[in-house]
Please model this.
Amino acid sequence: MDLSRDADVRLAYARDASGLELIADAVARPTTIADVIDVVREAAAGGLSVTPAGAQTSTTAASIVDRGVLLSMRGMSRVLDIDPVQRIARVESGVIVGVLNGELAPLGLRFAPDPTSEHEATIGGAIACNASGARSLRYGATRAHVRAVRVVDSAGELRDFRRPMLEKNTVGFHMAQDPVDWVVGSEGTLGVVVDAELALVPLPEREIGLAIPFRSEQSALAFVVAAREQGDGATGPRPQCLEYFDNEALAIARNEATPSRWMEGASALVYLEQAIDADGSLDDALGRWLALAEELGANANDIEVYDDASAIRAARRFRHAVPSFMNERGSARRAFGGRKVSTDWAVPYRQLADALDTARRAAAAQHVAPPVCYGHAGNGHPHENFIAQDAEELSRINLAVGETIKHVLALGGTVAAEHGLGKLKRHWLSVQLAPLQLELMRSLKRLLDPRCMFAPGNVFSPE
Model:
């Protein structure tokens, strides 16, 4: 397969959602597994690296590179098979998550992970960073929904990895029992995922959404904790997502809403979705959530209910408007050395208020504007968004984020809960993991990619 070294083509694949620009030496655009094998073998023979990329929605620069071959998988976008009885889909890695769910909906099924960019993000990209989304509160992240993967390795050979479908297994170390788990979350560093077999879940009978405004962040986050713990009990409805908007994020979302005075009296907002299954009661679930919201100080008269699929799509547009708006602001500062800085840390959900308070104090200490905070509060996983006006402010923002991360790790949290490490966060790997864990990762890398040709700079520093 030919590699394109055309300057315009290389530039077209030089940016992702991270705000960085890295230009590869060449770009390959395969449409078949045979094409991928050809590219990998040609790159290996020429001593070139290969960095797989999907739709390039990565916020960590994982899908761009400044050397070797950028392998765009967008052309491998076929849904190969859907088995509605076994609830399985087999797809090529370039399939868009939202497109797959569009095909599954008439069958009463869905691929559960729902990254914010699901109408742009590919299955391969979701597998690469173990993507999650709003519904991960109920369904978990991508890892739990991947049954098998096919991977082209560094020798240009096709490997099939499949999960053992066993309830019990005591053969060998646990880390060796399921090679699918080696690949999910590996960010392209172990090989090229060309297709995957996915487990599907049934669509609920009905879903409702509630936008619940609060006068203070403290009340909103107290509601999140109570809602999470009510759902964890034997009784009470279980939310499938609990999304948070601070005052700044709410102001951005308000600009997308009609009327423009939407949630005007609120300083924070929680967006909750509830699945109503066949044996569930809509009135009971709705009544319990409204009662809990009122008990914890919500602006009860302003609560909005979204009671059908169309209304829920509209509500999710408010949520998605926040990162979109911030991405636009960040893009405008690239020419000045600035960009958007987005965090991906998470803490145990009861510690979220503490962590957010620390984040804001760290920003104030560096004399930068408070971050816009929003996201998956039910999992203790917000996103902080800063806009660095220039390189000097970018440095101060990074110092503030560093102080926050130290506190997050002390609370038992993680630096990356959803988007992986990529190139922007790889320096935190050795802070969060013990040397023994790092050596285990490096050993697997050496085993599967002895020439270190895949995704240089992702997760590990380049060798």
Observations:
- The chain has a mean pLDDT of 94.
- The radius of gyration is 22 Å.
- The chain is about 35% helix and 20% strand.
- The chain has four domains: 7-72, 79-166+176-202, 206-325, 332-432.
